[in-house]
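Sanity check

After download, print the first record. It should look like this:
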Amino acid sequence: MIHRIVIPLLLLIFLPDLYRAWRNSRRKKKRLGRQLLRWVPSLLMGTATILLASTDGFIPEERCWIDLYLWVLGLYFIPRFGYRLCVFLGRIVKASTHSRSNWGRPIGLLLALILIVCFVIGMTIGPRQLKERRIDINFNDLPSAFDGYTIVLCSDLHLGSQSETFVSKLVETVNRQRADMICFAGDIQNTTPQELYPYVSTLRTLQARDGVYSVLGNHDYSYYMAQGDPSICMANERETISLERQMGWKVLLNGHEVVSRNGQHVNIAGEECYSKKAGQPSKSDLGKTLEGIGEGEFTILLQHNPAVWNDSILTHSDVQLTLSGHTHGGQMSLMGLRPTMKQYREDRGFYGQGDQKLYVTSGLGGLISFRFAMPPEIVVITLHRKG
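Expected structure tokens:
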């Protein structure tokens, strides 16, 4: 994880200085002192980047440091990179067209301004919004007693990045739906279960007729702290599970339960988080999760990572509805384009293949508290029986 982040960050920080140094080297008058001073901000930021990379998962113990780093990155280094890139491309166009003006400069200034505005909105207004998304899903084999059954899907709360105000607003909004079931698809924390302590009493007040069901996400296993020390990770994992159960949540660990209505029933199953990353062993076991469920029985499956849907759920089960999170919808969208669209075939929203359906929510938070045109959301799903 770290090496993939650090190298692009260092390039973003130092390439504009390298470009400017190259331009200045071609001039007859060279003011060495001024040129060296221009490197100071980049050297400080590069040092900060390396120091952050030396922490567990790029996350310092004091969150204020990563917030400060992000603000400096977003208000200065990213806009500066965008400006210099436009100037560089403008020079190429100028030379190839023999133009007298470099239009890259005004375009670069405009781009830098847009980037600053988007960053400020994404760091301040975006994460505080809460959208109620509603979707109706039809099934041929849904038991008639469950026609109109409502589920509120939540995911990726990342409490270490949240405020008491937002969590209280979330609980109030979810309870207002008067849902039959609440499903939480994982990542209640950033790194450690200590993040849950201030919110246990608030989250305990979530109410639904059939209760709250949850699964663990990749962050809930504490892989991102203690350099993956197995004993610490296991202790943190057990505590996270214990805290969720103290809140009255039913934590599903590769297992399932039965929900009944008027002599009919559906299964609510929860598979542990699926992962292909090194150092993050996959604990998912679809066979164990669905063991004992009869063929054709209607099943709702919680799985944090939507990649499992294509990898195994479609090919090795007849689960009718899978609910996932994990992607955060990329936490931003520009003209409908999201950063996660390349990495995940199903990165946000509703998908269907035959009688099997998948919904991927963009979630409620993130390790980095940034949202632009991708607000935090709860999804109110209403199940219908066709005909």
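If your output differs, re-run the checksum step. Summary of this record's structure: The chain has a mean pLDDT of 92.
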